[in-house]
Write a structure and sequence with these properties.
Blueprint (H helix, E strand, L loop, with lengths): L2 H21 L20 E7 L5 E6 L5 E5 L3 E5 L5 E6 L8 E2 L11 E6 L3 H4 L1 E7 L16 E10 L6 E12 L20 E3 L5 E4 L19 E4 L17 E3 L5 E6 L6 E5 L7 E4 L37 H7 L13 E3 L8 E6 L12 E6 L10 E8 L6 E6 L8 E6 L5 E5 L4 E6 L1
Parallel strand pairs: 5-6
Antiparallel strand pairs: 1-25, 2-3, 3-4, 4-5, 7-8, 8-9, 9-10, 11-12, 12-13, 13-14, 15-16, 16-17, 17-18, 19-20, 20-21, 21-22, 23-24, 24-25
């Protein structure tokens, strides 16, 4: 790597840390960033719109305010604009759904995850769904160290009264899945599936995936794991995607993407993803770029690791300084010349950064155009917990942040999914079983 590139990386990291330490505050106008008179600081409030759900994961809205949502171990439902709930498509063994997929199952972190509507939904009635599936296991999935096609993207037709989905078509069939337990923290089957989806400004579907606890995955472009896909409605890659090994790939080298969204001002794509015991990250994506996550063993000065995965080393089950872990297995490894430098690294901590959504609408005042990120509060080995939503003001070049504040939603929850909805409100799903509407005025 060129010296100039290393210096830029060092400068960006130092600047980000200084800014974060200097400007973390609360959205009531107190704090160094937003205490000045005359700033358009909105009043933010939250209310529960659904409760009693089982691990709600993602949401998608129609123009009239109907809300599709997934429950990880149950299935896809919709709450109509009138308030009626229709259970549409269930997992294997689920009850009360109009239809179900016998191949769809829930295990560990895996299950029914992302849902998104086609940009032309009003005309074509098309919905896309991400889920774990046994349909394409074939002769694979016998161990954790071989190809296991166990996550898929499906598309459906939704009828006009939102009571049924039909015409299931599987458009991505080979996203990798972890079939067995391994000697890792959170090491059960079904780890690190990614699962977040969104449509980009050009009308292509973007799909985030995870490394599924396999060391070679993120840097091996023969496998669909630790990558971001940019595909059309039939699963074919965008013709301008630059990764030649698989035309569907837009970026690679990721750990576990939980959020993808596009900055309204310029259409730039950003991802949010979990770190291991260090460095949650927000990153501006570059076509053909490398997220820099490489947990493979016996490289970069590392020896053998449990189950050939160095993602939690060294001393993976013990608390230690996050910087020591980061030096051993970096989230963004500067060995790679095609590294995409993160804008934000959560002050070096990993606290379970989840979904992400840019705030849109003038009602958000000075926060309009900033990125909201859900933090699920994982605390380990001295890492401070913190179940919250952050508002991140990303610099125009996408390589640093100007400030980070904590959104005053009035509750402390594991915020799993974030999505902008009707009336420019932010909707948030929690692992505790609620969906919140968060409004600004």
């Amino acid at each position: 790597m060129k010296v100039s590139t290393k210096l830029r990386w060092l400068f960006t990291a130092i600047t980000s840390v200084l800014l974060l330490n200097a400007t973390v505050s609360y959205a009531d106008g107190h704090g160094s960033d937003h205490g000045s008179k005359g700033m358009d600081v909105p009043k933010i409030g939250s209310m529960v719109v659904m409760s009693g759900l089982e691990s709600p994961w993602d949401m998608a809205f129609t123009a009239d305010g109907s809300m599709f949502y997934t429950e990880k171990c149950k299935g896809l439902s919709v709450k109509t604009a009138s308030g009626k709930v229709n259970a549409l498509y269930g997992m294997k063994g689920s009850k009360g759904y109009k239809n179900s997929g016998k191949d769809l199952f829930c295990e560990g972190q895996a299950g029914m995850l992302g849902v998104v509507l086609d940009p032309n939904f009003k005309k074509n009635r098309t919905l896309y769904l991400y889920s774990t599936s046994s349909k394409y296991h074939a002769s694979g999935c016998k161990t954790n160290f071989e190809k296991c096609d166990g996550n898929i993207v499906m598309k459906f037709q939704v009828n006009k009264d939102l009571t049924r989905v039909s015409k299931r078509t599987d458009i991505v069939k080979d996203i990798q899945y972890k079939p067995f337990e391994s000697n890792q923290p959170f090491g059960g089957p079904g780890a690190h599936n990614g699962g977040r989806m969104t449509f980009g400004p050009e009308g292509y579907l973007w799909v985030g995936t995870g490394d599924r606890h396999r060391g070679v995955c993120p840097q091996d472009n023969s496998l669909v794991c630790g990558v971001v896909l940019r595909i059309d409605a039939n699963g074919k890659g965008h013709p301008k995607n630059k990764i030649k090994a698989d035309q569907r790939f837009y970026t690679y080298g990721h750990r576990n993407i939980q959020g993808i969204d596009f900055r309204p001002s310029d259409g730039q794509a950003f991802t949010a993803e979990h770190g291991p015991w260090h460095n949650d990250e927000i990153t501006a994506l570059v076509n053909g770029g490398n997220g820099g996550w490489d947990p493979a063993e016996k490289i970069a000065g590392r020896g053998a690791c449990p189950d050939m995965y160095c993602g939690y080393e060294p001393n993976q089950m013990e608390g230690m300084t996050p910087a020591v872990r980061a030096a051993y297995t970096p989230m963004s490894d500067t060995r790679f010349d095609d590294l995409m430098f993160p804008a934000w690294q959560n002050n070096g901590y990993s606290q379970g950064t989840g979904s992400a959504a840019f705030l849109t609408g003038k009602n958000w005042g000075i926060y309009e155009g900033r990125l909201a990120t859900g933090i699920m509060g994982i605390g380990f080995g001295g890492t401070p917990g913190g179940m919250r939503i952050d508002i991140v003001d990303i610099a125009p070049d996408g390589l640093s942040v100007k400030s980070v504040i904590h959104m005053p939603v009035g509750v402390s929850k594991r915020f799993r999914g974030l999505e902008m909805g009707p009336g420019n409100a932010l909707y948030a799903s929690t692992d505790e079983g609620e969906i919140y509407k968060i409004s600004a005025q």
